[in-house]
UniProtKB/TrEMBL annotation:
<protein>
    <recommendedName>
        <fullName>Secreted protein</fullName>
    </recommendedName>
</protein>
<feature type="signal peptide">
    <location>
        <begin position="1"/>
        <end position="25"/>
    </location>
</feature>
<keyword id="KW-0732">Signal</keyword>
């Protein structure tokens, strides 16, 4: 009787072993799918000149995204707490570009003057996004941009803050 149990047990082990042996193995050479979104953050403190001090930190996070054949770029703009009550800028405009191999494919400009001068504790965020672009071409897609601004009381005219672009996606 114990021989019979051993025989059945051995048969079960043999069947399991054959199932496990013939189960498809994971391909060790398979790579993970490429990232669909890549971003990079840029930060700067804007401080007005003159007798009435005021300043605010601004962060622009440039991102590029691919969803199948749909591509877009955006700048997510966040403001830190404002120090002082005076206005800081005459104007502050965020410019975002969707690029492929450094060629402009879509662009947008968003006026952030009111956000920069608004008296608050910070934490506000808005997004400046290009129109969608449809392409099956792969490689070299990035978000890039700059911020055009004019600080109050600094004695200079328009200045440009060149932003570090996002890493590329396919």
């Amino acid at each position: 009787m114990s021989t019979q149990r051993f025989g059945v047990g051995a048969l079960v082990v043999a069947v399991l072993a054959s199932v496990l042996t013939f189960a498809p193995a994971a391909n060790a050479n398979a790579s993970a799918p490429a990232a669909n979104i890549q971003c990079r953050s840029n930060s700067k403190v804007f401080a007005r000149g003159g007798a009435t001090p005021a300043s605010r930190s601004v962060t622009v996070r440039l991102c590029v995204e691919r969803d199948d054949v749909t591509l877009r770029a955006w700048g997510s703009v966040s403001m830190g707490a404002k120090s002082g009550t005076a206005d800081i800028v005459y104007h502050l405009v965020v410019n975002v570009r969707l690029e492929q191999n450094d060629a402009d494919m879509a662009a947008v400009s968003c006026d952030a003057t009111a956000w920069t001068n608004f008296d608050d504790a910070g934490g506000q965020r808005f997004t400046c996004q290009t129109q969608d672009r449809y392409s099956s071409e792969t490689g070299g897609w990035t978000a890039d941009g700059n911020v055009s601004y004019d600080l109050i009381g600094d004695g200079k005219n328009d200045l440009t803050w060149s932003l570090a672009g996002s890493p590329a996606i396919s």
